[in-house]
Amino acid sequence: MINIDYTSRTPIYEQIVNEIERYVTLGVLKPNQKIESVRELASNLGINPNTVKKAYDELERRKVIATISTKGTFIADDTKSLTELKISEKLGIIKAEISELQKLGISKDDIFKNLMK
Predict the structure, then answer these.
(1) Which residue in 2, 37, 48, 69 has the fewest CB atoms around it within 10 Å?
(2) For residues 20 and 13, what is the distance between their CA atoms, to the nearest angstrom?
(3) Where are the domains of the chain?
């Protein structure tokens, strides 16, 4: 399920964080859903378990996942705020890009016409 680009300059642990956050945002991973253990994911991806542990630690820090001793690792109860944050982030990027295009003299109408092609 998680896709890693081994040739990317983005560290593998960050790619794992980004992929899991993306799946949560898209609703593929749902609140309270159990996810692979550190060892399972490391084995499936063919990477060092410490890399997955680092990603999981970051996801816990961001309150995306929660680890329950002897039970496993789960998607956190409240991921709605993550989804809202990701949408807000993406909209901010789009607005900035539109602003840049307008500074280059392209009208909003032309921008949207080209987007809809």
Answers:
(1) 69
(2) 11
(3) 12-78, 81-115
Distances in Å between the Cα of 26 and the Cα atoms of 23, 77, 103 are: 5, 15, 33
DSSP string computed for 3-33? ---TTSSS-HHHHHHHHHHHHHHHTSS-TT-
The model's pLDDT over 19-48, given as tens digits with 9 standing for 90+, comes to: 999 999 888 999 999 999 999 999 999 999
Q: Report the distance separating Cα 18 and Cα 14, nearest Å.
A: 6
Q: Which two tokens stand for residue 19?
A: 């992929």
Considering only CA atoms, which of 43, 42, 35, 40 is closest in space to residue 72? Answer: 35
What is the C-alpha R_g of the chain? Answer: 18
**SS3 call for 73:** strand
Q: Report d(CA 73, CA 67) in Å as an integer.
A: 4
Going by CATH, does the domain composed of 12-78 fall within 3.40.50.150? no
Q: Two tokens at 57?
A: 């630690």
